Amino acid sequence: AQQPGTPLSDQEYHQFFEFLRITIQASTACHLRELYGCKNSLVQRLDEYENHGVIPLGPICSELPGNPFFHNFCTFSLYRCIMKKYFLKV
Fold first, then answer.
1. Exposed, middle or buried: residue 2 (CB in 10 Å: 0-12, 13-18, 19+)?
2. Helices (H), 3-89
3. Contact of 76 with 90, CB cutoff 8 Å
4. All structural domains of the chain with their residue ranges
5. Could you tell me the mean pLDDT of each successive run of 10 residues in the chain, 90 residues long?
6. Burial class (CB in 10 A: 0-12, 13-18, 19+), 87
7. What DSSP state is assigned to residue 1?
8. How far apart are CA 89 and CA 70, in angstroms?
9. What is the pTM of this model?
10. Distance separating alpha carbons of residues 39 and 3, to the nearest angstrom
11. Which of 30, 44, 53, 58 is the most buried (most CB within 10 A)?
12. CA–CA gap between residue 2 and residue 88 (Å, rounded)
């Protein structure tokens, strides 16, 4: 175990920055969604990429306690962005 206050190992730094890079990309996708909406062609391409080429039709169900149902993928994606739960799946 590392001592508190010591720097991360090379492997730990790699994991740390990989997580930040992925989170920053997810945050950027959310900003595009908020600025241009779900009908924007770039946002739709991102949604298709996330779902293996097809944007799911609604309704969308999730394992979220208290929020299990979304009318469509756009609503679900906006929820993830607002709540900063970028990697939440259905």
1. exposed
2. 10-36, 41-50, 73-83
3. yes
4. 10-83
5. 76 82 88 93 91 87 76 89 80
6. exposed
7. -
8. 12
9. 0.71
10. 50
11. 30
12. 30
